[in-house]
Amino acid sequence: MSEQHIKLPEGSIEKQTTTLNLGPTHPATHGVMQNILELDGERVVSTEQTIGYIHRAFEKIAERRPLYQITPLTDRLNYCSAPINNMGWHTTCEKLLGVKTPKRVDYLRVILMELSRITDHLICNSIVGVDSGAFTGFLYVMQYRELVYEIYEEVCGSRLTTNIGRIGGFERNFTNTAFEKIEKFLKEYPVVLKEFEGLFLRNRIFMERLMGTGAISAERALNYGFTGPNLRAAGVDYDVRVAKPYSSYEDFDFKIPVGTTGDNYDRWLVRSQEMWQSLEIIKQAYQKVQEFKGAEAEVYHADVPEYYLPEKKDVYTKMEALIWHFKIIMGEIDMPKGEVYHSVEGGNGELGFYLISDGGRAPFRLHFRRPCFIYYQAYPELIKGGQLADAVMTMSSLNLIAGELDA
Amino acid sequence: MEITNEYIRERLVEKFGEQVTGFEESFDMLSFESPKDLNLKVLQFLYDDETLKFRFMTDLCGVHYPDNEGRELAVVYHLHNLEANVRLRFKVFTSVAQPDVFSATALFSTANWMERETYDFYGINFIGHPNLIRILNVDEMDYFPLRKEFPLEDQSRIDKDDEMFGRGEIFQ
User: Fold this and answer.
1) Binning pLDDT at 50, 70 and 90, where does residue B54 land?
2) What tens digit of pLDDT does each residue of A95-105 get?
3) Predicted model pTM
4) Which of A365, A382, A384 to mutate: most B Cβ within 10 Å?
5) Is the pLDDT of residue B135 over 50?
6) I need a labelling partner for A354 at 20 to 30 A (CA). Which of A70, A96, A316, B132 fits?
7) Do B108 and A225 touch (CB under 8 A)?
8) Distance from CA of B99 to the nearest CA of A (A)
9) Which pLDDT band holds residue B172 (cuts at 50, 70, 90)?
10) Which of A65, A100, A222, A404 to mutate to test the interface with B (most CBs of B within 10 A)?
């Protein structure tokens, strides 16, 4: 209207763009990421990203550390689903060292990995809600994430940075309480998830905010190296759990939910569907674990004394166990030479570990394929031409975790 | 048709002859290398070929081999054929004195940040990259920290007095 009636001189305020620094820390964005947006009114013209504010020199540190000492570093990658990072790292080590894990260990790992996938998706989906102004979902689901954290606590003693595995298995067997808690979770969670979906799924405001924003085509998503829910939302059914099964994922029956448009709403839907699938997997895995009887039900690690740490109670009381523990932690046993790339389906995509071993006690080179790092570079393309408010939604629906982004 | 490592190797040798070398299989993944000025041609061939179809770049990173005279730095590409579900590792080597490698950004958008990261850590200069600046480290930095000449602090140092860390007394 104004353009027709008022003749503004060239280069006047109407034609000028504004530069807006969104972040590094900003209430509307999570984590430490800076977006330098060029805005024409509310419309995003172009944008540039700055990351690295919490860079920890992860790969450099790993070059001086034996395998076990790298484990706590991996916890801090995607801290919303730390067990997956842990398992990813340990399965990589096992691949390199040629350790074969017993089936029961695999199933227990699957249970933990799927539980952490649920927490990861739950946080992401509820945060998308928060960014669109719906706080209830977030507030409501926290206590159910808590149920999962209690399971972790029962299995390994910690909640967030879990350090949950060992090379070859677990530090201790799952207690009965742990199984009870899993059962409780399996019973209660579907009801909650249904209600959680009910809050958002057909909510008019939520749909209007999400549909058609931050969309990416399947072709562009592939070119950008998208994986995980973000790629599946665009309609590509690539899932590492199916493409290259690890930890006995081939034994389970589950579907890969895919979207069509690749926009924010589809990403939300895919994550939501995946939580249902994860529940299915946990149910099956739990069933399979229950089938082990007698001595088999006591198996929780592979028989590899050269890599598997002695029991804690022995370490505290027996000299040999203490020495042996020390030797393993300090990496006295050399790794075999070789290069290995191993990937797992993380909470937000393919989490890959590329390890080059020159036969020493620490990796010669360790590189992490971090899914967040790859999504974020597509961000300018996703938000270009959209509203500023959509940019915030797109950011949260990509599930960016700063710890993983900066590594 | 199933794409085996043997088949990929045959196709590559057929196309590039003796310029592709170092074929190796570790943990089921085929790995090979080519001269650094051929990297784009090889990537393009792997991308375009109707049977090979390596159209997904999983990963790109650098490696530093300080003892490898004349080819100290390596760029490692991990490619994936999603249809046949085959992975591939492709390497090019370059010297520290002239670390110039062609950028793969025109072919894979995903290579953009990965190459920036590799530049940031190893100083590999990707020719043709639209925005080759540091990504994780500060801009003022004038060295490339993941190269091996910058070792982490030695844990067995003796000039580091334990007493300063409140542990000295116990061991005396």
Assistant:
1) very high
2) 999 999 999 99
3) 0.90
4) A365
5) yes
6) B132
7) yes
8) 19
9) very low
10) A222
